[in-house]
């Protein structure tokens, strides 16, 4: 039969209503609830079951950048943990200056300026971003653009559990201000992120064959698809 375009649009709108569907986020729980409603609405046409199990997931309570001008703190987004080490800060935050390092080539970094401060690098810096912490940066802000891809951000991932908080700033007014260097003076970078025990879910739905196909011994077909999302910036996945 032809695709039900109205239903497709409804499903797409519901599943993308939140910024993220990573396990442990409100978007994941909302997507699961939507799936359950839709499965239930199919009535006797299917049989379905829910399978729940606990997992540990990084959960962001808050992550902000505040200036000394008294303006409201603006959101930044922690990267995926470095091994088990979360991209979080002490409770009082990291108080330092912002130092723009561009693509983090050696020619763009002034070691004396970046030491002990917060480095600001472009997503296109890729693996060169490590030059900033090598010269003593306490944290790194990664600026995205409308052209930023998973390939760009993949180089900002860390496997070893080092205490090097990294945060993504999506394209917008804050990223523009950081590029221009208009945020001067000391800022406070504060992020509360914790490992939490959350519930993950699998759903199994059985669509039975019509009697005539069942009588002919038609083969079964299994279709598997994840409804959660994944990404190097969990809160924007």
Report on this structure.
With 237 residues, the chain is α/β, with parallel strands linked by helices. It is built from 7 helices and 8 strands; from the N terminus they run ααββββαβαβαβαβα. Strands 2-1-8-4-5-6-7-3 form an 8-stranded mixed sheet. 27% of the residues are buried.
List strands and helices in order, with pairings:
Blueprint: H1 5-15, H2 26-41, E1 46-67, E2 74-75, E3 77-78, E4 94-100, H3 111-114, E5 118-122, H4 131-134, E6 139-143, H5 150-154, E7 166-169, H6 173-180, E8 186-207, H7 211-215
Parallel strand pairs: 4-5, 5-6, 6-7
Antiparallel strand pairs: 1-2, 1-8, 3-7, 4-8
Helix content: 10-25%
Radius of gyration: 23 Å
Largest sheet: 8 strands, mixed
Q: Tell the overall outline.
A: elongated
Strand content: 25-35%
Catalogue the unreliable spans.
none
Short summary:
The chain is α/β, with parallel strands linked by helices.
Highlighted features:
237 residues; alpha/beta; 7 helices
């Amino acid at each position: 039969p032809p695709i039900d375009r109205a239903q497709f649009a409804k499903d797409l709108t519901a599943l993308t209503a939140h910024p993220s569907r990573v396990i442990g986020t409100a978007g994941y729980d909302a997507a699961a609830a939507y799936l359950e409603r839709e499965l239930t609405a199919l009535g006797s046409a299917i049989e379905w079951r829910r399978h729940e199990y606990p997992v540990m997931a990084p959960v962001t309570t808050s992550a902000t950048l505040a200036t000394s001008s008294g303006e409201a703190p603006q959101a930044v987004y922690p990267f995926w943990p470095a091994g088990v080490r979360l991209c979080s800060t002490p409770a009082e935050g990291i108080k330092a200056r912002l130092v723009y390092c561009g693509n983090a080539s050696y020619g763009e970094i002034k070691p004396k300026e970046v030491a002990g401060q917060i480095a600001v690098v472009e997503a296109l810096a890729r693996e060169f971003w490590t030059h900033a912490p090598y010269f003593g940066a306490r944290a790194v802000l990664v600026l995205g653009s409308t052209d930023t891809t998973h390939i760009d951000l993949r180089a900002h991932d860390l496997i070893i559990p080092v205490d090097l908080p990294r945060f993504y700033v999506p394209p917008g007014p804050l990223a523009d201000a950081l590029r221009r260097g208009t945020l001067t003076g000391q800022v406070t970078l504060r992020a509360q992120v914790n490992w939490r025990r959350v519930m993950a879910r699998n759903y199994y739905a059985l669509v039975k064959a019509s009697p005539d196909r069942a009588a002919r011994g038609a083969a079964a077909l299994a279709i598997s698809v994840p409804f959660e999302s994944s990404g190097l910036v969990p809160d924007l996945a």
